[in-house]
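Issue: ligand-bound run for adenosine-5'-diphosphate - logging full I/O for the record.

Environment: standard queue, default settings, no custom constraints.

Inputs:
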Amino acid sequence: MTPPLLRVDNLHVQFSTRDGIVRAVNGMTFDLNEGETIAILGESGSGKSVTAQAIMGILDPEVASIPSGSITFRGEELVGLSERKHRKLRGTDIAMIFQDALSALNPVICVGDQVAEMFRVHAGASRKSAKQQAIEVMGHVGIPAAAQRYGDYPHQFSGGMRQRIMIAMMIALKPAVLIADEPTTALDVTVQAQIMDLLKELQRETGTGLILITHDLGVVASVAERIVVMYSGRVMEQGDVDAMYAHPANPYTIGLL
Ligand code: ADP
Ligand code: MG
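Outputs:
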């Protein structure tokens, strides 16, 4: 049997802090298949972002550790993978749209070049073609006058516009797994819908498995096939969206819905 695209199995993540050990993730388990969208839902502090960081291999090794559990990508174990190998995966196979776009963008490189770089490095496009494709995808994510704004720097963009630039960069990568951590929280409803359409379009085109971390139940119902409900670093309930909306089994889920 072929392994799932991504499997998270009994994952534990903890932080050593001055006040002791913080157990942020306590046995997270889910599978993601090709072309599938799952939503991870849970209140603030329930371990959603830390789970995403563990999958990406971007936990701070100074403070974070994974005492047990497994994360496999196409059957390959990611827990304990060398930083060099993890970086390679991050480039092409697993990508993430962060909550905070400012920290993900380089302040001294214009936004257009940052998008174009994705096409150059990961798709091997020529400089000219990369620029053209960058302008096109910037237009797609709703940046008006994309060609004129190509040379702007991140600080010249609003929070929402920076978010769109980061989304454009990740769409350019066409990753096998895309984790979107509350990607549209800072955006207005119309743009949110546009972005979700784009992500779905990417998924139809490339079979990307999408992990959508969100509070927005409207978004969940319209794009996800499955919901994983998290509470205190654990899965409270998971299942098909329709079934869970119709008959949530867990009191916590009922409260959330
Ligand atoms: P959310 O579900 O809101 O995304 P997080 O995954 O960011 O929650 O956080 C889960 C828990 O882990 C929280 O209690 C948070 O305080 C803790 N945590 C996250 N990052 C760190 C860190 N660098 N050091 C210590 N604790 C952390
Ligand atoms: Mg978070």
